[in-house]
Design a protein that fits this description.
Blueprint: E1 4-9, E2 12-17, H1 28-42, E3 50-55, H2 76-93, E4 99-103, E5 106-108, H3 110-116, E6 120-124, E7 128-130, H4 144-152, H5 154-163, E8 167-168, H6 169-175, E9 180-182, H7 185-200, H8 205-215, H9 221-236, H10 239-249
Parallel strand pairs: 2-3, 3-4, 4-6, 5-7, 6-9
Antiparallel strand pairs: 1-2, 7-8
Amino acid sequence: MERMRLDFDGKVAVLKFNHPEVMNAVGAQMLADFTEAVGEVREPSNGARCLLLTGEGRGFCAGANLQDDNRNEGGGVGGGLRGGYHPLLLTLRDLDIPIVTAVNGAAAGIGMSFAMIGDIVCASKLGYFLQAFARIGLVPDGGSTYMLPRLVGWGRAMELSLLAERLPAETAHEWGLVNRLFEDNDELLEGAMGIARRLADGPRSLALIRQAYWNTWHNAFEQQIDLEARLQNEAGSSSDFSEGVSAFLEKRDAKFTGA
């Protein structure tokens, strides 16, 4: 892979946008590499139980690379989204392991979407978010209009999208878009990796928790409590549940295997 770098640090898959010369803006090759990398992360033999997504250099992901963008191919800009970005976004949503994102610089356009899709969003004070679409006459995409109002509220989402102004990481933390804020990028990577390792040592039910929360945004209350019951059945039949109960009764730390 030329534009993404994937390493396995124990049970944590560390995936980095790897085109720092353009602040990791997404072009056709990066999108293809990203898709390939997520496929490798999903491969059970690699043993990943958490995904950490961040960027090389000064940027997290500065949006689409307008000099190397394939979204106009096959049905216009929207067709390019459907054929390229949407399958990747849906795969990330349905990933069977938690996702931690570490925003070390600009998270703009589609890059902001990739940051927001993290279950735990970390950022350094050097990071910022930008709904850049209105600056070039486009509409927010990458799931932004779905995730952003649910994370920060309708008014703030409209403000960010219509005015296309930078949102500093510190303000994003105050608004609830960022879970953990760090002083600089060294602290960010250390802190985000610590969270990723903690999640990687967690039980099988973490994947089911992800599933429950993604569904709550479109389920009625009756549907959601039924889903909770079905997921609880699945969690209750796992070996991790047996281990968790045993550890609790024996007053020791549980040793989960993800099974």
